[in-house]
Amino acid sequence: MPLPRFRQVEVFPLKVEDKTMICLRDPEGVLDEAVLVSSSAFFVASLLDGKREALDIQVAFARKFAGHLLLESEIGAVVKELDERGFLDNDSYALRRAEAVNRFSQSAVRPFSHAGLSYSADAEVINRIIANFLTDSVDAGSSPEGGDGRLPLGLVVPHIDFERGGAVYASAYRRVVDRELPPLVVVLGVAHSAPPSPFTLTRKNFDTPLGVVSTDSGAVDELVARCGPWLLDHEFAHKGEHSIEFQLIWLKALRPADNFRILPVLCSPFDLFCGSEGPMSNDRIAGFLGALKEVAGGREVLFIASVDFSHVGPKFGMDIKLDSAVEAWMKERDMSLLGAVESGDEAAFWALGMEKGNETNVDALSAVYSLMKLVSPAKGKILAYDKASDPAGGIVSFASLEFGRP
Predict the structure, then answer these.
(1) pLDDT per residue over 329-369, tens digit each?
(2) How many angstroms separate the Cα of 17 from the Cα of each of 14, 20, 21, 246, 283?
(3) DSSP classification of residue 50
(4) How many CB atoms lie within 10 A of CB 317?
(5) What is the pLDDT of residue 121?
(6) CA-to-CA distance for 240 and 302, rounded, in angstroms?
């Protein structure tokens, strides 16, 4: 009989004393706590695809671990623990998820989800770390002052963890540190859980270790009135998503006294809705971007796209050896995309990104495309570019860009 399917979750190694454990975290936020499992238990979990039986896993385990025989009872113990923890795609998880969605819907505040995991939960530590990134040497290709001295109209900023991407975050946020934020900051985040809606909004305020950031519920209501209630149908996607949360940490650290509100927008992969056509062929994508541009048009606003670029390597489902040739290929692809952003050609940006089915797994496509449409005719300027190794076996690239005010 086939064993149940392991859910798609965030996975990364963690050192516990002298032993490497595998940390499992629910990207949707249904499960509030991360879980540590052994590498052998995770190998079993990774084989749970809803099709394999216990014998199939025993054979694969023996091949992986030099002929070691894994008892069926040991497999059963792993499956039982994963079920109890909520990491299997089954009825018990569906019930747990429904209860979590109900609790979230009744709360006025979206609690922070990555403090203590991806960044410190201590406000003093956060402020010190960000200050250090800002005062470190200026990155190649960036400058401490933004072009004409005015606050940019738009920024592209990474959403990788601060430890690996802090210098590139800083290259963008140097444009903010000495300039008052406008009343409205639109944050275009990546919906990593890919809810079946091109955009997902929420009226909830966002808690951070540095204080609560208020959402402009009036702007949300206006967009819902113009486009439809579908914008809030998958609001739960905001609970465990880090791409908006990380930007709010920087904004609160840099401008703690500014009276700004945010419009939090999660962008799912547009190709799920427009297929091989361009995003504007889809009525919901075109309608929302048009409505948001009109809503923002009468206000002073800053647009932020919170994105990373290429994701290559085994962790991201690619059976390739990570070497200098792969890194060069990844960078060439990224630079083509960034060139299209600098030229202000969103159609070319989209077409380049979708070549060969988005072969380098760029998660920036939807949010950056949206940003380009919203700030047009402004063009982007590359500030910094970098890459970092993923401890689970991969390379992630990220960049910062600014769009000056016309």
Answers:
(1) 999 999 999 999 999 999 999 999 999 899 999 999 999 99
(2) 10, 8, 10, 28, 53
(3) S
(4) 10
(5) 94
(6) 24
Domain of residue 77, residue span: 10-102
Instruction: Look up the pTM and report it.
Output: 0.88
* Residue 107 Ramachandran class (φ > 0 left, ψ -120 to 50 alpha, else beta): beta
313 and 182 assigned to the same domain: yes
Short-list 48, 107, 56, 50, CA closest to 82: 48
pLDDT for res 298: 78
At residue 366, the pLDDT reads: 98
Assigned domain for 5 exists: no
Whether 1 is covered by a domain: the verdict is no
Q: Residue 283 — φ and ψ, nearest 5°?
A: -60, -40
Peptide linkage before 198 cis (omega within 30 of 0): no
- pLDDT < 70 regions, the chain: 137-148, 391-392
Tokens of 186: 């639109």
Distance CA 112, CA 121 (A): 9
